[in-house]
């Protein structure tokens, strides 16, 4: 079941970091990025262009300049999204930008400093505070996973064997969409626990970073949080809502040098930004809105973000910029990218009662354990009361009413065990003290009591284990409303609500200003009424000014088109260069294959290869399909009817004649025909008895063909060497399949 909400666009905000010391030391030029916080505009100056050239202006849902605080960005642009996730929407926040512009700073920040904590730690606080303040009839289950995509391979950062583990596979199901198979998912009960998960993953990333050059700027990190919430609906049944939050720190968006590398390095270079360029293509296709095909399947990242871009999710993109003049090109590219992303439309909806909700499984399991436990305790209580001789007249429905009663039952069960133990001890004492009983009988009775005691203990242990399991299971579910009566908390909540209101107002104000700005331009014409010549002149001047403005705009757009063209030419050249490198590589591989791998081996290999689209790799099929293995191995070739193996005609005749012991078993020969007439040396040799094989092959005496054939098959003395050659060759020609 899902509630359809109208579509909404991806929110795009831009953040510019302050100039760093190194950039400041470059000169007094200052930054090239100016921001109008009120209008949400970024104004970019081209440091290489003449002053007369108009500056480029872009408008976004929010802009944050160098002096902006982490909290500002969170409250204004992220908080509403996390609130939606807590209501059961899917949400994604991704940071995009050149390396060193503050993606990681924005997403994670400095954990120790409350002022500098980024989006992720603030989201942790937000989620768990929300849960502790929600009503007590709600149950929550929070899970976290952490993965990274490096060189188009998905790796689980929470796997202890992260460095050596196999890359994970992506799978797709109609219910949950694309997911990562076998990804570790940790249930988190507090902020501390989820922070621990984050730290474990970050450490795994840091280890990888020391092994590989520029690892962190080339890998995409995805932190996934799933919040499941169960709440009684109007129908009295419990309904579950599942919100999934993706927190994505993308690889640096700068162009990677792809030219002049070969082999493994080339492969690596081709893969480095595959995900990022695929992301660009997906954004372009979605923003364009006309092209039906969106290439999500081109990369792992786009497949994982499929829901976030054009799907069932609310998405915020934070584009990060650096203000330094030397990065003008990259900054402009980032702004264009961000500008395009604004046009993407998503259709977010609440995920209600999905089939795969883990919370439901937990609830069922807890209920089962609880029933088991209750059953045990009640039966103990009943036994106790029987022991004490009390009558039992309660009906079953009353059993679970009230916590006091439950406690009483638990106490009774414990008492029963103690009483039983005492009783058994007493009975054992009595048996031991009984002087009239035979020693053998005493032993037997004592043994029996001992066994009863053991049973009792086992039962008690089983109950304890069950209780522990039940408690562990129950503790994973978070129940709302624990702090609801807390006064300070209430005040804090009010304060946050007010802050949220202010943030909302700022946002609305900015939107209104943006609208006014647009309307201003449009309404100028409407106000024009001519009452006098003077007014007409004024109106014409205004119009002229307006045309001048339009002209300036036109120039801007022309420059923009030129820029875009240049960029396309540049990227095309790069692609061509990569293609050339790849072609050269391919030719190199072909050369090896054609010259050093026998054609039949090549064909065999080619026939076994199949392309696995899931893993985007060529794979070998097994040599013999498992099920038909035995039948294929045992099959006798048709040319060997009556024999173990195919056999030549000559050998058959020889066997029939019984001429030579060699042919009593079947034999197969491969002979090459040498038509040169025998010379004296060969005649001499052929008449020599008991000649050795190695001596025959001597290349100084004659060419290999005939000699070799003789060494394989010593002809009987009655047949001359030349006639044997001919007849053997004839046999060979008659049964070509016999050749080995
Ligand atoms: P990225 O992840 O994009 O490669 P980082 O987040 O590592 O970049 O940032 C690079 C440096 O810039 C870090 O030292 C970081 O502290 C600093 N930095 C980034 N953004 C800001 C900001 N808004 N305010 C202050 N310092 C920042
Ligand atoms: Mg980073």
Offer a quick outline of the entry:
The N terminus and C terminus are likely disordered. Strands 3, 7, 8, 9, 10, 13, 14, 15, 16 and 19 form a ten-stranded mixed beta sheet that branches. A three-stranded antiparallel beta sheet has the order 4-5-6, with helices on one face.
Low-confidence stretches: 1-5, 390-401, 688-740
Mean pLDDT: 78
Helix content: 40-55%
For the biggest sheet, the summary is: 10 strands, mixed
Bound small molecules, deduplicated? adenosine-5'-diphosphate, magnesium ion
Strand element count = 21
Give the amount of beta strand, in percent. 5-15%
Radius of gyration: 41 Å
* Dominant shape: flat
**Protein structure class:** alpha+beta
- The separation of the N and C termini measures 68 Å
Total DSSP helices: 22
In words, what does this structure look like?
This protein is α+β, with helices and mostly antiparallel strands. The chain has 22 helices and 21 strands. A hairpin with a 4-residue loop joins strand 20 and strand 21. Helix 11 (358-387) crosses helix 12 (403-433), helix 11 runs antiparallel to helix 13 (439-476) and helix 12 (403-433) runs antiparallel to helix 13 (439-476). It is flat, with a radius of gyration of 41 Å. The chain starts with a strand and ends in a 6-residue tail after the last helix. The site of adenosine-5'-diphosphate has 13 residues, from helix 3.
